[in-house]
């Protein structure tokens, strides 16, 4: 991004955080009254609640005999940061295995922060646009990942899949010998749980793997745990897709920061490059280098112990070290704050803490929000009106609204 756009980018990020806080608390209020029959939100559009006990057919049966009045729904969760050929490959494989289906992309939205706590390259509106341009039928807003712990946003995702009445879930993975057994157990609907340095099949009670999983593989296992926790029957629902080689997120981010996509044109679809170039030209990208620095510094320097400890993801160790550090000298930059934050079990805790200081959402509110997630189904983009009507028809008998992003 040209230097004269950096300030405008920071101002843009501030506006996003301010806007999304309002949306978050609106959603929170809706989630609190979602089971209150007198709540005004419950008198609007309704969705269809998932019946976890319905019988499931496997992929081959769907491919051979799709006579139902409702198309099977494929729900794919990914950040699309940005949409690249690896994402397209996963989408393509899933759509080939389940033809005549609705492909719904679940894209994390509020606060524009990834599961690592790092700002996304571009807004969810732009990321949704790339998904539709590349073959998705519907894009719905997923959970605010950057201010949640990995277990928290995994649980939100599981609840979203449940609310969508998901028939199939495609997931990319990195293959290695022991992981085949893990995927086989998950395909059978077993609860495979990640524990510190080992993976356990709760249904069988045996250890499937000793060691840490790479991130994409860990997400699959964590999701199976969350789906099991909410009693969602995921037997034969997963479509596991081997990741393709030759796609580098680091190189793509570097290209976006410079605006030169020459070295990564084989990693991205032409429509992604076109949308990225448009967002850069209009000052809405790249956003991954910008934060609401003023709010983060104010939170770190001025919030009391009680106010800090109430924030999501904050613990006594982090809060005490923050206060002890600022008593010697106030923080003057985000880098200073990041350097003091101690590493935890998650390698992403530093950026997540920055996002928490930036958004200032209390953990008690987060717990209630997750308990009743999602308060609605927010559609960020869709292929056409006909597809949108099909989507509404499939989800037509629940207490959550379908809300179109404005």
Characteristic key phrases:
3-stranded antiparallel sheet; 5-stranded mixed sheet; Rossmann fold; Methane Monooxygenase Hydroxylase, Chain G, domain 1; 45% helix; 16 helices; disordered N terminus; 2 domains; 406 residues; 13% strand; alpha/beta; 10 strands
The CATH superfamily of the largest domain turns out to be HUPs
CATH architecture of the largest domain: 3-Layer(aba) Sandwich
The radius of gyration over CA amounts to 21 Å
The name of the CATH topology of the largest domain is Rossmann fold
Number of strands: 10
- How confident is the prediction overall: mean pLDDT? 88
| Poorly predicted segments | 1-7, 41-68
Give the N-terminus to C-terminus distance in angstroms: 27 Å
Largest sheet, if any? 5 strands, mixed
CATH class of the largest domain: Alpha Beta
Count of helical stretches: 16
> Which series of helices and strands comes N to C?
HHEHEHEHEHEEEHEHHHHHHHHEHE
Shape: globular
Q: Beta fraction of the residues?
A: 5-15%
Give the count of structural domains: 2
SS content category: alpha/beta
Percentage of residues assigned to helices: 40-55%
Largest sheet: spatial strand order: 1-2-3-9-10
Written account of the structure:
- The protein has 406 residues and is an alpha/beta fold.
- The chain has two domains: 3-174 and 214-247 and 369-404, HUPs (Rossmann fold); 293-367, Methane Monooxygenase Hydroxylase, Chain G, domain 1.
- Helix content is 45%, strand content 13%.
- The chain has helices spanning 6-32, 59-64, 85-97, 124-133, 150-163, 177-187, 215-229, 249-258, 270-281, 293-302, 305-309, 316-328, 334-340, 349-359, 363-371, 385-394; strands spanning 73-77, 102-108, 138-142, 169-173, 192-195, 198-201, 206-210, 238-242, 376-382, 401-404.
- A five-stranded mixed β-sheet has the order 1-2-3-9-10. It has a three-stranded antiparallel β-sheet with strand order 5-6-7. It has a two-stranded parallel ribbon with strand order 4-8.
- Helix 10 crosses helix 14 (349-359).
């Amino acid at each position: 991004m040209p230097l004269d756009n950096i300030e405008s980018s920071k101002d843009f990020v501030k506006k996003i955080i301010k806007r999304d806080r309002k949306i978050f608390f609106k959603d929170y209020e809706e989630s609190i009254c979602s089971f209150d029959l007198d709540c005004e939100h419950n008198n609007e559009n309704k969705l269809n609640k998932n019946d976890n006990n319905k019988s499931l057919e496997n992929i081959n049966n769907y491919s051979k005999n799709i006579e139902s009045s409702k198309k099977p729904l494929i729900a794919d969760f990914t950040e699309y940061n940005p949409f690249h050929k690896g994402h397209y490959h996963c989408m393509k494989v899933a759509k080939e295995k389940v033809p005549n289906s609705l492909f719904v992309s679940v894209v994390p939205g509020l606060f524009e922060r990834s599961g690592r706590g790092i700002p996304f390259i571009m807004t969810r509106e732009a990321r949704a646009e790339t998904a539709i341009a590349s073959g998705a039928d519907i894009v719905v807003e997923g959970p605010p990942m950057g201010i949640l712990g990995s277990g928290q946003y995994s649980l939100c995702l599981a609840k979203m899949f449940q609310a969508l009445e998901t028939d199939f879930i495609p997931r990319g993975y990195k293959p290695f010998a022991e992981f085949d057994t893990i995927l086989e157990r998950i395909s059978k609907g077993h609860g495979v749980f990640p524990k510190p340095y080992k993976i356990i099949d709760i249904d069988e009670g045996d250890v499937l793997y000793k060691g840490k999983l790479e991130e994409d593989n860990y997400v699959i296992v964590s999701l199976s745990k969350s789906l099991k926790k909410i009693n969602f029957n995921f037997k034969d629902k997963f479509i596991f897709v081997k990741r393709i080689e030759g796609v580098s997120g680091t190189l793509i981010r570097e290209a976006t920061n410079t605006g030169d996509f020459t070295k990564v044109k084989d990693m991205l679809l032409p429509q992604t490059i076109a949308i990225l170039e448009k967002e850069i030209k209009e000052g809405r990208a790249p956003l991954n280098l910008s934060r609401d620095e003023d709010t983060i510094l104010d939170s770190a320097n001025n919030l009391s112990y009680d106010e800090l400890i109430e924030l999501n993801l904050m613990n006594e160790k982090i809060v005490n070290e923050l206060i002890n550090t600022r008593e010697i000298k106030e923080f003057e930059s985000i880098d200073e704050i990041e350097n003091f934050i101690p590493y935890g079990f998650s390698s992403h805790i530093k950026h997540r803490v920055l996002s928490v200081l930036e958004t200032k959402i209390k953990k008690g509110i987060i717990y209630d929000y997750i308990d009743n997630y999602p308060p609605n189904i927010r559609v960020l983009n869709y292929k056409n009106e006909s597809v949108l009507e099909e989507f509404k028809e499939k989800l037509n008998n629940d207490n959550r609204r379908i809300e179109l992003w404005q």
